[in-house]
Every structure is written in structure tokens, then in C-alpha cells.
Amino acid sequence: MDTLITNLALPSIQEELGASLAAQQWIVDGYTLPFATLLLLAGNLSDRFGAKRAFICGTAGFALSSAICALANSVEMLILGRALMGVAAALILPSSMSLINEAYLTEDHRRRALAAWGIGGSAATAVGPLLGGLLVPIHWSLVFSVNIPICLAILLMSGKLATSPRVPQPVDLIGQILAIVALTCLVGGIIEGGAQGFTQTVPMALLIVGAVGLALFIFSQSRVASPLMPLSLFSSAGIRLALLGGFSMILSWNGCVFLSTLFLQQELSLSPLVCGLSFIPSAFSGAFGNLMSDRLAGARGSRFALMVGTALLTLGYGLIIVFAGLDALDAPLIALAVCLAGMGGGINTPCLANLVLKSTDAQHSGIASAVFNAMRQVGGAIGIAVFGTLTSVMATMSLGIATSLGISILLMVLLFITNFHTREKAAA
Hints:
Layout: H1 2-17, H2 21-37, H3 39-49, H4 51-70, H5 75-103, H6 107-135, H7 142-145, H8 147-158, H9 173-196, H10 201-221, H11 237-267, H12 272-277, H13 280-300, H14 302-323, H15 330-358, H16 365-393, H17 397-427
């Protein structure tokens, strides 16, 4: 919700604080970068100090950093506040999944809880544009102030949570440093590559350093007694399937929303608010998909539900390619196609989260959740950067959309085949 609201507030922020285009990008990416790069560390802290404690600290930090953003009287102060929000969000996300794992011990109950957890994200897609449209005309600072009462309500409710178990272990300082450097450079290189072009010096240097850092991180994890990210996590077929699904789905979905937004505004000349409102039906279809996920998984198993969701995502992306080339009724038809994709994503997300939690032991649920969500964040950054670059170099926007979403369809086919193969092996 906060990301969607912030995007709508950028023109007002630019007018009052004089934010340049680069500064506006960092108002958005200043949140995304620490959020993505600190997830592994946050997952480790969640396991080490207890998910409840990490969740409460993250929520309190989110409220405080939101207040800093709301009171900002300069671009620099606002970017600092956004970076602190990213740090707090990194603490919240993996610990929230661990709390679900601790509170719901049977798979049926956990699956229903994860469906409700997914509905929160779907609801945010609908609430974000509406709330932003109401608050930004009053003052842009309200898009950050609105977080404070929500965080306070969460902190009041968190008193009823049971105390989380703690897993004391030595600190993998080298692994933490390498993970932060690798993810910061990779995500930063992707963001800058999308803005400058991947052949430019800065993005290329960041990506090279990030790749080397990632290789050194993986090597270090096989050599230390208490690794930040135990490589044994990847021995599970369920974890590998969940990571592939999380990465490919968010890469495709973020790229799809980004391209659809560009098409509706640049090709059909819709206003930003009307464009944002056109995505609200997909939020409801996503919430419906979350509810269907529990029913499908309960009746036929999580992997069957995952096959249904992936098929809907593939169909939605295919229809966007077709509809973007038409001359009439583009907006409602594209909204319909995005709804199908949103429903597919709504079905898949709880299934993948459940796969992560049931494929690892309780003491590693925090770091497993962090790895899953880090893959999602990196995938989302790649989707926007790569799809934006492809669209800019194609002869027409329709051709760029067709090429980009063609990649999405290939990724969904790969996910479908991998899921089917894993299902067959499990049955055997």
C-alpha cells in the first residue's frame, strides 16, 4: 500500500520540495533497496531473537520512519526516512510468516492463515490508489502519516502473541556483510540498468560486484559452522519450487503492471488516477484467488492449486499481448486480462508460502521466509528494469509488451513443468 501511495504523491513532493527526477526515483528505490537487501539478515535475526520481537521492532520502526517522512522538509530527509522504512519492512516480512508458522501447527490451519495473509496484499492494491487519491490533494505528507495509526493498532494487538522461540547461534559476520554487499549491488545495478541502460559503466560495475559477492557469499556459507543461510535449505524440492515460483511470478507481475500502466497512460492518454483505479478489479480478483487457493489446495493439494494459478497467469499475460494490439476497448480488455493474472497470482502466493514453511524445520522458518521474499524482491526489480528496457528499444509499445510478456509466459511454462515434475516425483 505504501509503495502505491508514494508513487501517486511524487508530483506533489516534487512541487513542494523541488525533487529532481533522480531524487524522485530514490524516494521510491530508497525504500526498495534496503528492504530487498536486508531480508536475509532480518530472517536470521527473526530466528535468533524470536519472530515476535523482530515483528514488534519492525512495526515500531515503520511507524517512526513514517513520521520522519511525514515531517520531512527536504528531499534528503525524505529519502532517509524512506530508507529507514525499508529496514523496518525487512524486519516485518519474514517474521510475519514465522509467526503464522508458530501459531498454526497443522497444514490446513496454516494454509487458511496464509490465504488471509495474501488477502492483505491484494487489499492493499485496491486501497493504495483510492487512499492516495483522497490524501494527496490535502497534502502529500498524509500518505506517510496514515501508516502511524495502523502500526499502533498492530502493536496493541501484538501483545496477545505467544512468545516466539529463539535459536541462539554464533553470528556469521562475513556472511552478513557479503549478503548485504551482493544484494545491494545486484538490486542497485538492476535499478540503475533500467534507468541508464545495462551497458553503462555504473550498472555494469554494480552487477559484476554483485555477482562476485553472491558467489563469495554462497562459498562462505559452505565453510562456516553457523551460516546465515544454511545451504541445506535448498536440498528440499519444495523450497526450490517455491523460490522459482516466487522469483518468476513477481518478475512477471511487476513487469506486467508496469507495462500496462505505461500503455494506459502513454497510448490511451488516461490520467494517473484513472489508470490506478483501473487496477482495482485485479485486487478483488487477487483476493478471490487467495480464498480459492485454500479450497483448491484443501481438495486437491497445494501443487494442483499451483498448476491452476499458473495456468491463469499464463492466460492473462497472453490476453494482454492480444488486447494491446487492438484499436478499440483496450482499457477494459486489458483490465480483464490483468484480473485473470491477478487471480492466478492470488492462488499461487499462499501455496508457495506454505511450501516454504512446510519444507523447512521451525527453527529455520525465519531465514527460509527471508530467502523466499528476497527472491521475490529481486525478481520484481528485474521485471521492471528488463521489461522497461525491452519496451524502449522496440519499434512500437505493443511489440515491446508482446516481447516482454512472452518472457513471462515462458517463465510460467517453466514453473508449470517444474511443479508437475516435482508432483510426479512426490507421488512416485
